[in-house]
Write the structure tokens for this entry.
Amino acid sequence: MLSRSTNDDSETSCKPEQILQGAFQVFLQYGYAETSMDRVAAQAGVSKHTIYNHFQGKEGLFVALIERLVMRHFQVEFGCALPEAEMPERVLRRLAEILLARMDDAEYIAFVRLMIAESDRFPELAQLYVRQVIQCGTAVLSAYFKACPVLTVPDPEITCHVFFGSLISFILSQEVLHGKHIMPLEKERLIHYLVNLVLVHHHRNDT
């Protein structure tokens, strides 16, 4: 369980992460609708004013949590673009491994379950995830397919949907929906297949 800090509000260096840790616990406990800035402030050990200064409100907190739990790992590894100079096999494999590593992150899995549970009452939450994660990732990968000199992908957008969709479906079916004991599948087997599915265009280009 994440512990809350008792530092004074004047100490601001760790405040954003401190607030996000508190918000995460409150979202999980109460759901999106019942999460209030009062509850987040109490859990994080800060004032409401401090929360609004950093995140502007509940939706801002939710977006920041998506970035913290998902995008940070992608951005640390790749930045804003995939490296065109590297061999496609290495780039695609590393991308898939980073995404599937989220399966071992209990916080991320709990967050996805929360988002799914709240998506009927608050469809904008699921749409935030789609925009921040799937749409962003698809745009980066599509740009890579178009720019990579050794790949000739006939439909980059559809190829991105197949690539990302397969990885996300794997995370959902294996971890989020507790399916790994019913229909187990090895990560490496999926990664190998998806990378080869894209690389077939590389081989055709070479012949």
In short: Confidence is low (pLDDT under 50) at residues 1-12. DSSP finds nine helices and no strands in the chain.
